[in-house]
Protein: DUF1211 domain-containing protein
Organism: Nocardia stercoris
Amino acid sequence: MNSGRTEGFSDGVFAVAITLLVLNLHAPEGDLKAGLQHMWPAYLAYVVSFLNIGIMWLNHHAMFRHVVRVDRKLQLLNLVLLMAVVVVPFPTDLVGQQLAHNLHGGDTKTVALVYGLVMIAMALGFTSVWWYVVLRPGVLDERLDKAQLRQANLRFQVGGVGYLIGTALAPWQPLAALILFGLLSLYYAFEHLPQPAVPAE
Protein backbone atom coordinates (compact mmCIF):
# COMPACT_ATOMS: atom_id res chain seq x y z
CA MET A 1 0.00 0.00 0.00
CA ASN A 2 1.36 3.45 -0.84
CA SER A 3 1.47 6.22 1.73
CA GLY A 4 -1.11 8.55 0.14
CA ARG A 5 -4.15 7.60 2.22
CA THR A 6 -2.16 7.44 5.45
CA GLU A 7 -0.70 10.89 4.78
CA GLY A 8 -4.09 12.34 3.89
CA PHE A 9 -5.74 11.00 7.03
CA SER A 10 -2.82 12.18 9.17
CA ASP A 11 -2.94 15.66 7.65
CA GLY A 12 -6.61 15.88 8.57
CA VAL A 13 -5.99 14.91 12.18
CA PHE A 14 -3.11 17.36 12.54
CA ALA A 15 -5.31 20.09 11.06
CA VAL A 16 -8.18 19.36 13.46
CA ALA A 17 -5.87 19.28 16.49
CA ILE A 18 -4.17 22.55 15.62
CA THR A 19 -7.53 24.22 14.95
CA LEU A 20 -8.99 23.07 18.27
CA LEU A 21 -6.24 24.97 20.08
CA VAL A 22 -7.68 28.36 19.20
CA LEU A 23 -11.14 27.36 20.44
CA ASN A 24 -9.70 27.40 23.97
CA LEU A 25 -8.93 31.12 23.71
CA HIS A 26 -11.76 33.34 24.93
CA ALA A 27 -12.25 37.09 25.13
CA PRO A 28 -11.77 38.27 28.73
CA GLU A 29 -14.65 39.72 30.69
CA GLY A 30 -14.54 43.22 32.13
CA ASP A 31 -11.57 45.45 31.40
CA LEU A 32 -10.10 44.25 28.10
CA LYS A 33 -6.52 45.41 28.61
CA ALA A 34 -6.23 43.98 32.11
CA GLY A 35 -7.92 40.76 31.01
CA LEU A 36 -5.56 40.26 28.08
CA GLN A 37 -2.54 40.89 30.30
CA HIS A 38 -3.86 38.46 32.87
CA MET A 39 -4.40 35.70 30.31
CA TRP A 40 -0.93 35.80 28.75
CA PRO A 41 -0.11 32.26 30.00
CA ALA A 42 -3.04 30.91 27.96
CA TYR A 43 -1.61 32.57 24.86
CA LEU A 44 1.84 31.18 25.64
CA ALA A 45 0.40 27.68 26.02
CA TYR A 46 -1.38 28.12 22.68
CA VAL A 47 1.84 29.16 20.92
CA VAL A 48 3.85 26.30 22.43
CA SER A 49 1.25 23.69 21.49
CA PHE A 50 0.77 25.17 18.01
CA LEU A 51 4.52 25.00 17.39
CA ASN A 52 4.79 21.43 18.67
CA ILE A 53 1.90 20.17 16.56
CA GLY A 54 2.79 22.23 13.50
CA ILE A 55 6.47 21.33 13.42
CA MET A 56 5.70 17.68 14.09
CA TRP A 57 3.37 17.79 11.09
CA LEU A 58 6.19 19.23 8.96
CA ASN A 59 8.54 16.42 10.00
CA HIS A 60 5.79 13.81 9.60
CA HIS A 61 5.22 15.05 6.05
CA ALA A 62 8.95 15.05 5.31
CA MET A 63 9.32 11.51 6.65
CA PHE A 64 6.42 10.07 4.65
CA ARG A 65 7.85 11.56 1.46
CA HIS A 66 10.45 8.80 1.70
CA VAL A 67 8.09 5.99 2.76
CA VAL A 68 7.62 3.68 -0.21
CA ARG A 69 5.34 1.13 1.44
CA VAL A 70 2.81 1.34 4.27
CA ASP A 71 1.83 -1.83 6.12
CA ARG A 72 -0.71 -2.42 8.88
CA LYS A 73 1.81 -2.11 11.72
CA LEU A 74 2.92 1.27 10.46
CA GLN A 75 -0.70 2.38 10.23
CA LEU A 76 -1.31 1.31 13.83
CA LEU A 77 1.79 3.12 15.09
CA ASN A 78 0.71 6.19 13.17
CA LEU A 79 -2.72 6.01 14.81
CA VAL A 80 -1.09 5.96 18.25
CA LEU A 81 0.84 9.09 17.30
CA LEU A 82 -2.33 10.81 16.07
CA MET A 83 -4.16 9.86 19.28
CA ALA A 84 -1.52 11.79 21.25
CA VAL A 85 -1.61 14.73 18.84
CA VAL A 86 -5.37 15.21 18.94
CA VAL A 87 -5.50 15.26 22.76
CA VAL A 88 -3.01 18.17 23.04
CA PRO A 89 -5.72 20.91 23.07
CA PHE A 90 -7.14 19.53 26.34
CA PRO A 91 -4.04 19.95 28.58
CA THR A 92 -3.19 23.15 26.70
CA ASP A 93 -6.45 24.69 27.90
CA LEU A 94 -5.91 23.43 31.44
CA VAL A 95 -2.33 24.60 31.80
CA GLY A 96 -3.10 28.01 30.31
CA GLN A 97 -5.96 28.61 32.74
CA GLN A 98 -4.05 27.41 35.79
CA LEU A 99 -0.91 29.40 35.01
CA ALA A 100 -3.05 32.52 34.63
CA HIS A 101 -4.89 32.09 37.92
CA ASN A 102 -2.44 30.37 40.26
CA LEU A 103 1.12 30.04 38.99
CA HIS A 104 2.46 27.93 41.86
CA GLY A 105 -0.71 26.18 43.04
CA GLY A 106 -1.10 22.45 43.36
CA ASP A 107 -3.52 22.21 40.46
CA THR A 108 -1.10 24.13 38.24
CA LYS A 109 1.66 21.66 39.01
CA THR A 110 -0.68 18.77 38.25
CA VAL A 111 -1.85 20.09 34.89
CA ALA A 112 1.72 21.05 33.93
CA LEU A 113 2.74 17.46 34.61
CA VAL A 114 -0.18 16.18 32.54
CA TYR A 115 0.82 18.53 29.72
CA GLY A 116 4.37 17.19 29.88
CA LEU A 117 3.16 13.60 29.78
CA VAL A 118 1.12 14.37 26.66
CA MET A 119 4.22 15.93 25.07
CA ILE A 120 6.16 12.77 25.90
CA ALA A 121 3.39 10.62 24.43
CA MET A 122 3.45 12.66 21.24
CA ALA A 123 7.25 12.45 21.02
CA LEU A 124 7.21 8.70 21.68
CA GLY A 125 4.51 8.26 19.05
CA PHE A 126 6.56 10.04 16.42
CA THR A 127 9.74 8.23 17.46
CA SER A 128 8.03 4.83 17.20
CA VAL A 129 6.87 5.63 13.66
CA TRP A 130 10.34 6.87 12.77
CA TRP A 131 12.15 3.81 14.09
CA TYR A 132 9.69 1.50 12.41
CA VAL A 133 10.18 3.03 8.97
CA VAL A 134 13.96 3.06 9.49
CA LEU A 135 14.28 -0.54 10.70
CA ARG A 136 11.53 -2.27 8.70
CA PRO A 137 12.95 -3.52 5.38
CA GLY A 138 11.19 -2.20 2.31
CA VAL A 139 9.32 0.63 4.05
CA LEU A 140 11.81 3.48 3.66
CA ASP A 141 13.46 4.55 0.42
CA GLU A 142 16.67 2.52 0.30
CA ARG A 143 18.47 5.34 -1.51
CA LEU A 144 18.53 7.50 1.63
CA ASP A 145 21.97 8.39 2.89
CA LYS A 146 22.81 6.04 5.79
CA ALA A 147 25.09 8.51 7.56
CA GLN A 148 22.32 11.11 7.54
CA LEU A 149 19.93 8.51 8.94
CA ARG A 150 22.25 7.86 11.88
CA GLN A 151 22.54 11.59 12.54
CA ALA A 152 18.75 11.98 12.45
CA ASN A 153 18.38 9.08 14.89
CA LEU A 154 20.71 10.81 17.34
CA ARG A 155 18.93 14.17 17.03
CA PHE A 156 15.55 12.58 17.72
CA GLN A 157 16.95 10.89 20.84
CA VAL A 158 18.37 14.18 22.15
CA GLY A 159 14.99 15.86 21.67
CA GLY A 160 13.26 13.02 23.49
CA VAL A 161 15.51 13.53 26.50
CA GLY A 162 14.51 17.19 26.47
CA TYR A 163 10.83 16.28 26.79
CA LEU A 164 11.65 14.03 29.75
CA ILE A 165 13.54 16.86 31.45
CA GLY A 166 10.69 19.29 30.82
CA THR A 167 8.13 16.91 32.28
CA ALA A 168 10.29 16.25 35.35
CA LEU A 169 10.61 20.02 35.80
CA ALA A 170 6.87 20.70 35.35
CA PRO A 171 5.65 20.05 38.95
CA TRP A 172 8.21 22.50 40.39
CA GLN A 173 8.58 25.10 37.63
CA PRO A 174 5.55 24.79 35.34
CA LEU A 175 6.23 28.00 33.43
CA ALA A 176 9.87 27.07 32.80
CA ALA A 177 8.76 23.63 31.61
CA LEU A 178 6.30 25.19 29.17
CA ILE A 179 9.04 27.44 27.77
CA LEU A 180 11.35 24.43 27.42
CA PHE A 181 8.68 22.58 25.43
CA GLY A 182 8.46 25.58 23.14
CA LEU A 183 12.24 25.60 22.64
CA LEU A 184 12.16 21.89 21.86
CA SER A 185 9.66 22.50 19.09
CA LEU A 186 12.10 25.01 17.59
CA TYR A 187 14.87 22.42 17.93
CA TYR A 188 12.83 20.07 15.77
CA ALA A 189 12.04 22.89 13.34
CA PHE A 190 15.65 22.74 12.20
CA GLU A 191 15.55 18.97 11.77
CA HIS A 192 16.71 18.00 8.30
CA LEU A 193 15.61 14.48 7.46
CA PRO A 194 17.88 12.40 5.22
CA GLN A 195 17.81 12.88 1.48
CA PRO A 196 18.47 10.25 -1.18
CA ALA A 197 22.18 9.68 -1.68
CA VAL A 198 21.48 8.50 -5.23
CA PRO A 199 19.24 10.64 -7.44
CA ALA A 200 16.10 9.02 -8.82
CA GLU A 201 16.31 7.89 -12.41
Summary: DSSP finds eight helices and no strands in the chain. The helical segments are 4-23, 32-38, 40-64, 72-87, 89-101, 106-135, 146-169, 174-189. Residues 4-189 form one domain.
